[in-house]
Fold this sequence. Notes:
Elements: E1 5-9, H1 20-28, E2 33-36, H2 43-55, E3 61-66, H3 69-76, E4 82-88, H4 99-102, E5 122-123, H5 127-134, H6 140-148, E6 153-154, H7 155-159, E7 172-177, H8 185-195, E8 198-202, H9 208-211, H10 213-227
Parallel strand pairs: 1-2, 1-3, 3-4, 4-7, 7-8
Antiparallel strand pairs: 5-6
Amino acid sequence: MTTPRIVLVHGGFVDGSGWQGVHTLLKNDGYDVAVVQNPTLSLAGDVAATRQVLDAADGPAVLVGHSYGGVVISEAGTHPAVSALVYIAAFAPDKGESVNTLIADPPPGAPVPPILPPRDGFLLLDREKFHASFAGDLPAEQAAFMADSQVPWGVDALSGAVAEPAWRIKPSWYLVATDDRMIPPPAQRAMAERAGSTVTETPGSHAVYVSDPAAVAAVITQAATAVR
Length: 228
């Protein structure tokens, strides 16, 4: 049996360094792990960056996406190397859907992400509200660093629509972060149910992949074990 490679895809406003805790745990368990530094300028560009890493995979891969990274893996996951998908508090769009369409009609009372108006085609989160909205379970100092080191998110990435969602043809797992204030947990559950994902729930903010790497690594390991 071949142990699949784990490929981690980050979301908007952040870079791949947030996966460090998950990376360490998986490496310690003997997995080969790659972190995609997707530029988050456009969906097409991020899919291309992810497929470049998948092209280098020697054998099967488990493709993992956080937040907007879920859109990327839904499109890139049709790559023949991918044997399973893992969504971490992530968007899981269907054919023709994008981040924009998925957030267009929030339920009454749902928290509104503090996204500032676009400047020169890029989006950022309000630094003063970053801690509460994105990383409520992280220490204030760590959340402040994440707020100050934000990666501008291209508006073209939000409008990028998925052509052929990989979750329709490949098994998927989903970790719901029950304290998420960026993607409401009910929306996470609905997307996971639609995708037929194996679902795990854990207390955590949108930054659960940083705050609770053990919970995230456990779901990834579950997927990797199932498809070995």
